[in-house]
């Protein structure tokens, strides 16, 4: 099975549980389980080849320009993790089917779980390191959904948020580290990077990259000082905890450290950062775990401790330590997932996980007792279980490692860690299951059905089997994976239960005996622990986040206080400073062209433009007058477009002017007709300086560009040359719109449509509220004169309508070769229809509107898209246009071009968008039932007809 | 000969534009100003047509057509606004 399919299967499968939940909970869980099983089979099919030392690859270019490719590979390490993720995932799915109660939405659960599973599989199979980071972020997001699954619980939500904040921040650091690493190695493919040990370690950027990558790993794997999020994530349902914290999420950090081990490990920096953090985490987690009363919290801190152990082993940087780390990853995944599931069973049956309220469950739940005991003893490191083996290997490695030339520090610390580890493992069994049967459980417990204990039983069977026959069952796998981690062909010792009497054995014995003694002294120590002051991680985290939020809010509020004038001032000031800097430091273009002579007409136009602009500023408090003056500006601008040979722009500007005025007047109806005087003198001065400066700057820039040649050759020549050849049109502007930049236009009509629909949606929303009543009872702020639908206007607009539509059609069809096109034609058609609204009223016009404007917008976009896709039929890229000629008999030759169809899409989208927006805005003032059924208020013909009828009667 | 006629016409319509602007700025009431703007639109049609004759091109024709056809819509909208407050009832 292709690696692409293996990585994609969980994502594809996530759809099924979400849909099949309607068919029942069994169908839902079966679909999730089968998808996972299929992916697992896919991985196992590759297993023989991987065990032979081959590397399975699947490659596809995604964004090669960025170095981002969908490259996957699977070696021993990837395969081990894929098997852990999918295998334990399968067991979790079975377990969760029985664990989740009727009230829990199971479809969501499995969908989230499979998303998470897919992201994890993606991490471990990615070859491209950028792809890996993407999957890494996906695990953060999907685990957020899983941890916060019980969204009615505040702990769940807070825990999810904390996990997301910590792992997300780490992910951010990781991105930086990975980019640096790829930069140093010259490739973003792991298979290449892993060969570059010397280059990477000699680079001056090595330490920065290392720290950033480790930040990502430590936050994900809950290493000190980022260990605090993991216990809070225990608010999740137990299957989630078991999955995230035994086999997957927190192992992602370890995976990445193991993956990059060949290039990053072996330096003093690596040793002191990684091994020290691991050592502290291991001891700290073990000590805290002993004093946790919540079964899941105990297990959570024990997970923290064991992750620290593995991190420390990776940090040692020796091949033997790496082998031990690999072995412990396998062992920890088996016994920890089983322990979480037994904790879940106890919680499920007894309705509490508080150790102090439990005890004596041995007789009530014998099966659970057996499973929990075996798994816990493995965690404590008791022979002949698998936890003992890897712990021995760890102690052996620790016993001859120096920390700053200190021979004792590491051996003593790990023995203390192991001692506490044994103590809390014993406590888990003794305080929960042993002792007398109590009669004050919240719920009388008994063993659950096989569906719930089957999954942990399978894992416990593995725990025992690996412990008894390590070389036969786990040996080849461990060796293959260790080879993959270290990137070398190692000379392996066989995994054995009995190593002889070594320092490790002494340390192990001290730990187990000490652990038993600690447990016996637990009661007084617990009291002392509770009395002792301890830093509360959650409080610190909350304070930190609170301070950060306050800081961000302060900065944001200061910059974004809602005053438009202020934004404009900040923007202009920054632009002026940047422009001034560029002018002072850069070189300017010399004037290479002479100016045009100033003749009479341009001079008059200039006077009109400048005069009306100054008047806009002068009269800006009178809003209606301002609109009139803006009309002058628009007119002169379109005249100058004509004068400077830009007829397309002139036509567009003219039609846009009309629509703008209508829009503004519709809005002004509800607004005060004058702007209040608010600005102080100082602010006016500031604004005047900034705006004059900005205006002069832009003017100067344009002047310089007009007088000189730009630094790069203009692309106009290309357009002129290829307009007819490539696009089949003489009008370059239109060919640019529908062909050269057709993709932009396509995006723009979609945006235009969205804007119109949003206006419609806001209007709908506002009209549902109490505002509607206020609008209906609104008294106009000015006296109302004349009739609503004057006869003269109705007649004129009715006569104009077919003319205007004919002109629109004319402008549309000539557009490809002469000034015009779909956009201008759309505006003209829209104005022709809006005239009817103005003349005969909203009610009359909408009654005659047969096609909803949304549909017109949509059909426009679809027509444009279909035209673009038509190019695919000829194996050409999207939106490649074609054209040809037809010769109708008796007529001149006639050009057809697919661009015209595309332009039709533009036309429809523009008509729909303009009309939908204006239609929505005019609804605010519309008062239904007040308008007459007639198109005009006074109609002599109607009066005469009535009189005629009266006479007849 | 036509050139001189055109120059004369340009001068007339150009000064008409300036006078329109003067009225827009100084007239009493918005009504007069809207009318002045409307006149300005009409004058600009004339100037575009004259430019077409002067340069011997038809390229300005569509612009004049659209101004003639749609220019009145803004004026009507202003008029409705002043009379009724609401331009689409």
TrEMBL record, chain A:
Compartmental location: Cell membrane; Membrane
Classification via Pfam families: MbhD, MbhE, MnhB, Proton_antipo_M, Proton_antipo_N
Keyword annotations: Antiport, Cell membrane, Ion transport, Membrane, Transmembrane, Transmembrane helix, Transport
Span of domain MrpA C-terminal/MbhD: 609-673
Domain NADH-Ubiquinone oxidoreductase (complex I) chain 5 N-terminal stretches: 65-110
Transmembrane portions of the chain: 72-96, 108-125, 131-150, 162-185, 205-230, 242-264, 270-291, 298-319, 325-346, 367-388, 408-430, 451-473, 504-521, 567-584, 596-619, 624-644, 650-668, 688-706, 749-771, 792-813, 819-839, 851-874, 894-918
Domain Na+/H+ antiporter MnhB subunit-related protein: 793-915
Residue ranges of every copy of the MrpA C-terminal/MbhE domain listed in the record: 683-762
Membrane topology summary: Multi-pass membrane protein
Domain NADH:quinone oxidoreductase/Mrp antiporter transmembrane: 126-404
NCBIfam families from the UniProt entry: PRK12648.1
Chain's role: NDH-1 shuttles electrons from NADH, via FMN and iron-sulfur (Fe-S) centers, to quinones in the respiratory chain. The immediate electron acceptor for the enzyme in this species is believed to be ubiquinone. Couples the redox reaction to proton translocation (for every two electrons transferred, four hydrogen ions are translocated across the cytoplasmic membrane), and thus conserves the redox energy in a proton gradient.
Protein name: Monovalent cation/H+ antiporter subunit A
Source organism (scientific name): Arenibacterium halophilum
UniProtKB/TrEMBL annotation, chain B:
Localization of this protein: Cell membrane
Keyword Cell membrane: yes
Alphabetical keyword list: Cell membrane, Membrane, Transmembrane, Transmembrane helix, Transport
Keyword Transmembrane helix: yes
Superkingdom in the source lineage: Bacteria
Membrane spanning stretches: 6-22, 34-54, 60-83
Pfam families recorded: MrpF_PhaF
InterPro entries per the UniProt record, alphabetical: MrpF/PhaF-like
Membrane topology: Multi-pass membrane protein
Family, similarity comment: Belongs to the CPA3 antiporters (TC 2.A.63) subunit F family.
PANTHER family: NA(+)/H(+) ANTIPORTER SUBUNIT F1, NA(+)_H(+) ANTIPORTER SUBUNIT F
Protein name, entry field: K+/H+ antiporter subunit F
Originating organism: Arenibacterium halophilum
């Amino acid at each position: 099975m292709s690696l692409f399919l293996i990585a994609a299967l969980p994502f594809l499968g996530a759809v099924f549980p979400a849909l099949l939940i309607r068919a029942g909970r069994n169908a839902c869980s079966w679909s999730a389980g089968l998808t996972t099983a299929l992916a697992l089979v896919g991985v196992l099919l590759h297993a023989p080849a991987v065990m032979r030392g081959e590397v399975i690859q699947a490659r596809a270019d995604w964004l090669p320009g960025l170095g981002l490719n969908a490259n996957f590979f699977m070696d021993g390490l990837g395969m081990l993790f894929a098997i852990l993720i999918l295998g334990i995932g399968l067991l979790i799915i079975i377990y969760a089917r029985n664990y989740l109660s009727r009230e829990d939405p199971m479809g969501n659960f499995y969908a989230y779980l499979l998303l998470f599973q897919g992201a994890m599989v993606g991490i471990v199979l990615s070859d491209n390191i950028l792809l890996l980071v993407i999957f890494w972020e996906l695990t953060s997001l999907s685990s957020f959904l899983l941890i916060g699954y019980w969204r009615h619980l505040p702990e769940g939500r807070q825990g999810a948020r904390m996990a997301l904040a910590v792992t997300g921040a780490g992910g951010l650091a990781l991105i930086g580290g990975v980019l640096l690493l790829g930069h140093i190695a010259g490739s973003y493919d792991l298979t290449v990077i892993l060969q570059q040990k010397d280059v990477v370690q000699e680079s001056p950027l090595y330490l920065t990259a290392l720290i950033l990558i480790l930040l990502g790993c430590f936050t994900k794997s809950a290493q000190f000082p980022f260990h605090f999020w993991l216990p809070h994530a225990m608010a999740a349902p137990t299957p989630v905890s078991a999955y995230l914290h035994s086999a997957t999420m927190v192992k992602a950090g370890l995976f990445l450290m193991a993956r990059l081990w060949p290039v990053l490990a072996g330096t003093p920096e690596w040793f002191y950062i990684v091994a020290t953090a691991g050592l502290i985490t291991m001891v700290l987690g073990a000590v805290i775990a002993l004093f946790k009363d919540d079964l899941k919290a105990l297990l959570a801190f024990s997970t923290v401790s064991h992750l620290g152990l593995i991190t420390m082993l990776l940090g040692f940087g020796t091949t033997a330590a790496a082998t031990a780390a690999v072995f412990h990853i396998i062992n920890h995944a088996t016994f920890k997932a089983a322990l979480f599931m037994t904790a879940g069973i106890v919680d499920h049956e007894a309705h509490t996980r508080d150790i102090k309220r439990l005890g004596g469950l041995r007789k009530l739940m014998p099966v659970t007792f057996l499973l929990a005991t075996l798994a816990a003893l493995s965690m404590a490191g008791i022979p002949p279980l698998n936890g003992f083996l890897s712990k021995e290997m760890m102690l052996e490695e620790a016993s001859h490692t120096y920390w700053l030339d200190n021979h004792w520090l590491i051996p003593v610390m790990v023995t203390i860690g192991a001692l506490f580890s044994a103590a809390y493992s014993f406590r888990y069994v003794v305080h929960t299951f042993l002792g007398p049967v109590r009669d004050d459980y919240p719920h009388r417990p008994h063993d659950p059905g096989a569906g719930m204990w089957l999954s942990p039983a399978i894992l416990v069977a593995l725990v025992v089997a690996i412990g008894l026959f390590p070389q036969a069952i786990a040996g080849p796998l461990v060796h293959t994976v260790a080879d993959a981690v270290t990137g070398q062909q190692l000379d392996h010792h066989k995994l054995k239960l009995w190593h002889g009497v070594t320092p490790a054995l002494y340390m192990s014995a001290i730990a187990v005996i000490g652990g038993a003694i600690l447990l016996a002294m637990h009661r007084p120590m617990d009291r002392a622990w509770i009395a002792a002051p301890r830093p509360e991680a959650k409080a610190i985290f909350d304070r930190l986040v609170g301070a950060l939020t306050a800081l961000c809010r302060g900065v944001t509020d200061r910059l974004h206080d809602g005053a438009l004038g202020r934004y404009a001032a900040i923007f202009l000031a920054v632009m002026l400073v940047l422009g001034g800097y560029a002018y002072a430091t850069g070189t300017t273009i010399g004037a290479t062209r002479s100016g045009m002579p100033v003749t009479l007409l341009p001079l008059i136009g200039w006077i009109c433009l400048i005069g009306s602009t100054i008047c806009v500023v002068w009269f800006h408090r009178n809003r209606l007058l301002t609109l009139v003056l803006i009309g002058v500006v628009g007119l002169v601008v379109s005249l100058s477009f004509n004068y400077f040979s830009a007829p397309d722009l002139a036509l567009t500007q003219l039609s846009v002017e009309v629509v703008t005025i209508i829009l503004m007047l519709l809005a002004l109806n509800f607004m005060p007709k004058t702007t209040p005087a608010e600005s102080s003198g100082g602010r006016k001065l500031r604004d005047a300086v900034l705006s004059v400066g900005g205006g002069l700057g832009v003017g100067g820039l344009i002047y310089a560009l007009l007088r000189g040649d730009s630094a790069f050759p203009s692309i106009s020549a290309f357009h002129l040359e290829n307009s007819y050849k490539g696009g089949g049109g003489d009008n370059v502007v239109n060919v640019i719109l529908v062909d050269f930049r057709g993709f932009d236009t396509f995006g723009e009509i979609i945006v235009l449509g969205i804007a119109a629909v949003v206006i419609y949606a806001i209007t709908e929303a506002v009209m549902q509220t109490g505002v509607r009543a206020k609008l209906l009872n609104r008294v106009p702020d000015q006296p109302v004169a004349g009739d609503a639908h004057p006869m003269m206007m109705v007649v004129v607009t009715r006569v104009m309508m077919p003319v205007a539509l004919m002109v629109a059609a004319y402008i549309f069809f000539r557009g490809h070769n002469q000034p015009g096109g779909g956009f201008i034609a759309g505006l003209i058609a829209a104005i022709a229809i809006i005239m009817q609204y103005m003349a005969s009223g909203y009610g009359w016009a909408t009654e005659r509107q047969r096609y909803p404007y949304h549909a017109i917008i949509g059909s426009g976009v679809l027509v444009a898209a279909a035209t673009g896709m038509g190019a695919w039929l000829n194996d050409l890229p999207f939106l490649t246009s074609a054209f040809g000629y037809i010769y109708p008999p008796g007529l001149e030759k006639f050009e057809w071009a697919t661009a015209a169809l595309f332009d039709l899409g533009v036309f429809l989208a523009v008509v729909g968008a303009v009309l939908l927006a204006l239609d929505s805005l005019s609804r605010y003032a519309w008062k239904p039932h007040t308008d007459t059924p007639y198109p005009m208020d006074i109609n002599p013909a109607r009066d005469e007809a009535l009189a005629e009828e009266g006479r007849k009667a | 000969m036509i050139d001189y006629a055109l120059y004369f016409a340009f001068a007339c319509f150009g000064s008409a534009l300036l006078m329109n602007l003067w009225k827009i700025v100084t007239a009493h009431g918005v009504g007069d100003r809207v009318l002045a703007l409307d006149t300005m639109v009409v004058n600009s049609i004339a100037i575009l047509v004259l430019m077409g004759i002067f340069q011997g091109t038809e390229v300005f024709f569509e612009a004049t057509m659209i101004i003639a056809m749609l220019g009145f819509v803004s004026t009507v909208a202003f008029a409705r606004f002043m009379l009724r407050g609401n331009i689409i009832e």
